[in-house]
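Review form for a predicted model. The reviewer records the input and the model, then writes brief findings.
Reviewer: anonymous (R2)
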Amino acid sequence: MEAAGLTGHSSVSSYIVQTLQDSASRTVQQARRTQLDAAESAAFVQSLLAPSAPAPALQAAFACYREQVR
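Model under review:
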């Protein structure tokens, strides 16, 4: 198999094993990035339902913006 040689593997078997390991690792990493545990889900939903007040710096920046666009 040409791909094995191009990637520096000494055999097709080592190429296949490495390719499968890489694919499995990407699959697991992607699943971990996109899934929240129960506590994280609850915190996320709570932040959407009851957002905290904007920080003073954000309030000041918004006030400055309002003054500039008038």
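Findings: Helices lie at 2-6, 12-34, 38-49, 56-69.
Further findings: The two ends are 67 Å apart (CA to CA).
Recommendation: see findings above.
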